[in-house]
Write a structure and sequence with these properties.
There is one protein chain. By secondary structure, the chain is of the alpha/beta class. It has 2 domains: 13-178, Rossmann fold; 183-373, Spore Coat Polysaccharide Biosynthesis Protein SpsA, Chain A. It has 11 helices and 15 strands. It has helices at 21-35, 84-90, 118-123, 145-150, 165-178, 210-219, 253-263, 281-289, 319-328, 334-339, 360-377; strands at 13-17, 41-44, 65-69, 74-78, 96-100, 108-113, 131-136, 159-161, 183-188, 225-229, 242-245, 268-273, 297-301, 308-315, 343-346. The strands form 3 sheets. Strands 11-10-9-12-14-13-15 form a 7-stranded mixed β-sheet, sandwiched between helices. The protein has a 6-stranded parallel β-sheet with strand order 2-5-1-6-7-8, covered by helices on one side. Helix 1 crosses helix 5 (165-178). The longest helix has 18 residues, at 360-377. The radius of gyration is 25 Å and the shape is elongated. The relative contact order is 0.11.
Length: 378
């Protein structure tokens, strides 16, 4: 099983260290605010021991958890320390996490050179494992000797003034663009076609079996394209197409999506069903052009009920823990996840392209429609 490339809190996380805690908090505020239009930020810190004497609220009475709807925000207070696994779950919806490096560690660091914190920083030199940005305070003119010893490539690291807020925001935005998950394609071809009465993935709407027609369309937009199927169907797929068999079985499309993330948890997945005979490249291109990596998914709205259309959706890596959490509560409907999560919804450019076929009557109607279109072009 492939593990996501997570740090202590998330995929993209930076510990800011070498400055007073107040400076770190204010810098985090500015960066989170500057990136807020496009990315969801989060912050991690440790309170000073003299900030609080007793646990808040009912925790002091022995409660293990207290939830408070603060109207403007929600608050969860835990009595017990959160494990790294629980922290990653809580931070999974954030696109980036900034960490007070004076108290917590992260897989990458932003180093502040401040003469007043030089001695404190020297004690944390061992934490400088992956410095990606150096910020210089007005009272400092050089890179400290112990930093040069700990960060051998310090000359290659971007260096900015600590008050160059626009430059700092530009740095983080560039990193987030660079870290945007690649997009894979997944063709859902593992259904049993019980309502149709025959394998609808093998219908040749466009001169070739539909599963191959969809896969070929996705190849122009995705890094890798896989045909999703049940384990016993693998040998039925042409050798020219990559196969991704279900490892979450008997869950339909939900199991196929989870199986894809289990295989490549750091990729985003453009999931497309095979029963969309009118689907075209323009519809796929439109969805990708409006992809919102800050959401858990980008989906079209159904023209019938206005709800998310699960048959063609881009699922971001942050949706993986969300899908598993729904499954743990007994739900295995992709649409239910989209409805109850932070999903980016867009109207379809061509509503007819989302028409799906599940019955012989629908098959005959679409077949006639396609023949009429071909005749009109001729």
């Amino acid at each position: 099983m492939a593990r996501p490339s997570l740090g202590n809190f998330g995929r993209s996380e930076w510990a800011i260290l070498g400055a007073p805690c107040t400076v770190i908090k204010l810098l985090a505020d500015d960066v989170i605010k500057g990136l807020a239009p496009d990315y969801k930020g989060a912050y991690a810190d440790t309170t000073h021991t003299d900030d609080m004497i007793l646990p808040p609220g009912r925790l002091n009475a022995g409660a293990v958890l207290e939830y408070t709807d603060q109207l403007q925000y929600s608050q969860l207070s835990y009595a017990a320390p959160l494990s790294p696994f629980q922290l990653r779950q809580h931070f999974s919806q954030a696109d980036f996490v900034l960490v007070n490096g004076n108290h917590q560690q992260a897989k990458a660091q932003v180093l502040v050179l401040d003469e007043n914190k030089k001695a404190s920083l020297q004690k944390r030199a061992a934490n400088l494992t992956n410095v990606e940005l150096i910020l210089v305070s007005d009272n400092t003119n050089e890179v400290f000797d112990f930093v040069q010893d700990a960060v051998l490539n310090w000359r290659d690291i971007p260096m900015l003034k600590v008050d160059d807020l626009q430059g700092i925001i530009t740095f983080f935005k560039g990193k987030l663009i660079q870290n945007q998950p690649k997009l894979n394609g997944l063709v859902l071809a593992g259904g049993k076609s019980q309502r149709m009465g025959f394998d609808k993935t093998a219908v040749k709407w466009h001169g070739k079996e539909q599963r191959y027609h969809v896969a070929d369309m996705l190849r122009g937009f995705c890094s890798n394209v896989y045909i999703s199927c049940r384990a016993e169907q693998q040998d039925e797929v042409h050798t020219g197409y990559a196969v991704l068999p279900d490892t979450f079985t008997d869950l339909g499309p939900y199991g196929a999506i989870l199986s894809a993330f289990r295989s490549e948890p750091d990729s985003a997945w453009l999931v497309v069903a095979t029963d969309l005979p009118l689907l075209d490249e323009t519809t796929i291109q439109h969805l990708i052009a409006l992809r919102n990596p800050a959401a858990i998914a980008t989906a079209y709205t159904s023209t019938f009920d206005g709800l998310p259309e699960p048959l063609i959706t881009i699922w971001e890596p942050k949706s993986y823990p969300q899908l598993l959490a729904f499954l743990a509560q007994g739900y295995s409907c992709p649409r239910k996840v989209l409805i109850n999560s932070d999903t980016s919804l867009i109207p379809p450019a061509n509503p007819d392209a989302l028409t799906n076929v599940n019955t012989p009557d629908e098959h005959d109607r679409i077949k006639l429609l396609l023949h009429q279109k071909i005749a009109s072009h001729d």
